[in-house]
């Protein structure tokens, strides 16, 4: 079959690879119908997540049809249209039982490197390196889905493939980010990043009761999209001083919660950004411009909810602000399984719009071009959806 493979840093290509087979009783094989690019892939392509190997198939945000089920699968059936959570979790361990699916003890089939880096291994993640299981991804004609009863969800008929595919990753990540914020009536929430994840976090914050949601980015087309599609306020960080603007918009208090949906490749200006770039090029730290700004902007007693992905260390981390303003920092890879059934219902009811995110539906054979457009934010690309 054809698949889009990681061949080295900034080197992708469509290759002929073997089709996946059932390896464990609880596996299903899914024939992919739609597979989205994601900001997380950029960290792999740019070489900031270690443990990728030449030939690894990319893609973790996907939807398709079940074509084969393992003997231990109870609920999934051949012919079903399913959306699959990007995180691979067993559903049974002490973490899954607490709803902490991305901390699953059994999803990562190659836990040693993760343990040596972070202490204890988390769940598996499709196509996210040999740190998190080395699973083959979904930018392919077929994909093997482990623990399918736990991670593959039937899709309501009224949602198209290109709308529902976001229930795999972007929508639940955004929802979790807002859920972490303990939003109360009257709260103001600021969101750094107007990509698919930031937009879905902003939409969730509004649905969870925020009085105002302010989204920060530098791309005019993304900011206009937030205003038009979600009806929310925006700030362009290249035009205003974000901390000052947020203070002005919140009667001098700062946002009650700040969501970081940018991650380790944040952009910025000035000497701090130059310092981050040099240190990141030497693989000594992650670029945390947006994270620092979120911490410094947040109101006293507020929550900083971090869903942007970080892999290593953050220099100049404003711990003094965390302690002395009494902030709570929450973060995780998405615990998607906890939210996806509820979110599919909300999406089908029209409460969470996603169709506008699918700016570039393309054939899988155009995968290299799709990532070039997405990485460089060309042609208004928010998400390319690859169709095998
Ligand atoms: N925790 C999870 O489970 C999970 C799931 C999916 C994605 N992610 C992460 O979420 C992040 C966003 O993903 P995405 O798909 O939306 O990516 P994206 O690349 O489409 O969007 C990121 C946006 O951040 C903006 N940005 C850069 N620097 C900024 C700054 N200083 N201030 C404000 N905005 C800034 C960029 O202009 C861009 O629009 C990534 O780090 C990704 O890895 C996490
Ligand atoms: Zn993702
Ligand atoms: Zn588990």
UniProtKB/TrEMBL annotation:
Transmembrane segments: none annotated. SUPFAM superfamilies: GroES-like (SSF50129), NAD(P)-binding Rossmann-fold domains (SSF51735). Its cofactor is Zn(2+). One of its GO terms (molecular function) is oxidoreductase activity. It comes from the Bacteria. Pfam families: ADH_N, ADH_zinc_N. InterPro entries: ADH-like_C, ADH-like_N, ER, GroES-like_sf, NAD(P)-bd_dom_sf. PANTHER family: DEHYDROGENASE, ZINC-CONTAINING, PUTATIVE (AFU_ORTHOLOGUE AFUA_2G02810)-RELATED, ZINC-TYPE ALCOHOL DEHYDROGENASE-LIKE. This is Glutathione-dependent formaldehyde dehydrogenase. It comes from Thermobifida halotolerans.
């Amino acid at each position: 079959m054809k698949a889009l493979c990681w061949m080295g840093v900034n080197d992708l290509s469509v290759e002929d690879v073997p089709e996946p087979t059932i390896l464990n009783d609880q596996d299903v094989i899914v024939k992919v119908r739609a597979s989205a690019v994601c900001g997380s892939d950029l960290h792999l392509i740019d070489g900031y997540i270690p443990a990728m190997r030449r030939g690894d198939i990319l893609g973790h945000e996907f939807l398709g049809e079940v074509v084969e089920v393992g003997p231990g699968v109870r609920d999934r059936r051949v012919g079903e249209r399913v959306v699959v959570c990007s995180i691979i979790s067993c559903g049974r361990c002490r973490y899954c039982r607490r709803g902490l699916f991305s901390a699953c003890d059994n999803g990562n089939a190659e836990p040693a490197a993760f343990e040596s880096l972070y202490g204890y291994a988390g769940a598996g993640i499709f196509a996210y390196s040999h740190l998190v299981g080395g699973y083959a991804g979904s930018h392919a004609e077929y994909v093997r889905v482990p623990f399918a009863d736990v991670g593959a969800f039937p899709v309501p008929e009224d949602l198209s493939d290109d709308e529902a595919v976001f229930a795999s990753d972007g929508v639940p990540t955004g929802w979790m980010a807002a859920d972490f914020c303990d939003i109360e009536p009257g709260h103001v929430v600021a969101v750094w990043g107007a990509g698919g994840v930031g937009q879905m976090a902003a939409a969730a914050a509004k649905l969870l009761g925020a009085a105002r949601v302010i989204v920060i980015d530098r791309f005019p087309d993304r900011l206009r999209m937030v205003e038009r599609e979600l009806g929310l306020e925006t700030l362009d960080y290249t035009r205003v001083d974000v901390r000052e603007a947020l203070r002005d918009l919140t009667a001098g208090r700062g946002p009650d919660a700040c969501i970081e949906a940018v991650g380790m490749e944040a952009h910025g200006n000035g000497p701090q950004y130059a310092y981050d770039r040099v240190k990141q090029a030497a693989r000594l730290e992650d670029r945390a411009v947006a994270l620092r700004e979120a911490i410094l902007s947040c109101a006293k007693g507020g929550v900083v909810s971090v869903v942007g992905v970080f892999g290593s260390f953050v220099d100049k981390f404003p711990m003094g602000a965390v302690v002395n303003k009494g902030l709570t920092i929450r973060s995780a890879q998405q615990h998607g399984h906890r939210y996806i059934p509820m979110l599919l219902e909300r999406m089908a009811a029209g409460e969470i719009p996603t169709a506008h995110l699918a700016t570039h539906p393309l054939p899988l054979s155009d995968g290299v071009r799709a990532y070039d457009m997405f990485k460089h934010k060309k042609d208004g690309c928010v998400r390319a959806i690859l169709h095998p």
